[in-house]
Specification:
423 residues, 66% helix
Length: 423
Amino acid sequence: MRNRTFDLFKWAAALFVLLLHVPFPGDVGGTVRMFARWAVPFFFMVSGYFTYGAVQREDAGRLVRRIRRLLRIFVPAAGFYALWCCFLLSDKTPAAFFKSHYAMKNVVSFFLLNNTQSKPHLWFIPALIYCYGVVLLLMKMHRTHWLRWAPLLLLVPLVLGEVVVGMLHREVAAQYSRNAWFTGLPCFALGLLFKEAETQIKRLGRKWPALGVLVGLALSVLEYQYLNDSADMYFGPLVAAVSLFLLAQNVTCTWENPFVLYAEGSALAIYILHPALRNLAQRQLLPWWGVALFLLAGLCLYLGLSQPKISSGVLVETPTTAVQSGTTTQSAAATVGRSAASSTATAAQTAASGNAGTVSYPVNLNTATFEELTAIQGIGDQRAAAILAYREQIGKYTSVEQIKDIRGIGDGLYAKIAPYLTV
């Protein structure tokens, strides 16, 4: 069962990103801006945490699907903000705008350091793609244990933030610390390590992580007071991010209510769309009800792009019910003897209730029939049809976990039916 605490914390992190980019004025706003830097490292940790299972199973297909999903989100988002900045925020002609923003040095900066020209906040998505790509490469090389050393790379942005920018007051371009190599991958690897050590972490309880959050807040206040706060990574927010992550591991929430599901789906949408909403509010080009509708439309677009589409046009043969099958089997067995008929009827009833004790289980997803799938408790006619349709769409299942890509099959149902399936 998926721990929904992470989804709620991701939603909170998205709100703190808003405070990072649209801060309150004065010292209070500056302190909040400093502390809000915990949000982005937390996003990467959560992504690493939920990748642990694929790494353990060496499920390269799952990582490829995540990369494709992120590309489906990033490409339209980058195109949208390119046009947004060109026609709404820039005084240049479209030709001059695109020539300056997409010069060769900027293209190189994007591919090496994830520096997105139109809206810098989009760097997170290509950085996360790079994280999945690195894990995929190490998986092919059978060297995923190298990721244990990746968190040491956090020393680079910490030194740049605390010493070079904070104490020496030197200007350092944000992309030198805000990229996949020095922020994304180290925090992603931390999420993997925390998942691996989850049993030991749960023994900590909630007290120590909660205390760590307070320590991170106190350090953020001190760093704002005594350091230049123009860098992207500081020690206080990083301590807060780690502590909040450990706290989330110790607070189990499995609610499936609409608010939690909204939190899961809206975090990335809020992260992507909030600069556009800020521009609209600043320029008073749209009333607040229009901004709300714009956000809702963006959320729907995100949900539509991020969920796999299952074709509903696949014709599925009308199933013969398990009871009818059991009756036929029992009639055939009657010629052998009463005991054999009784045994066959019992087996048919077991299959009808979805019990995996029969010899036909586990069912191979790549050869399963409609009747075999519907005999599993928890898989009805619609889900069986969707599983078969998705098999036709992708060609072949490479892992049982791929059925979680089908809408309507969440972690809870997957845990219930997975023991009865194989590939």
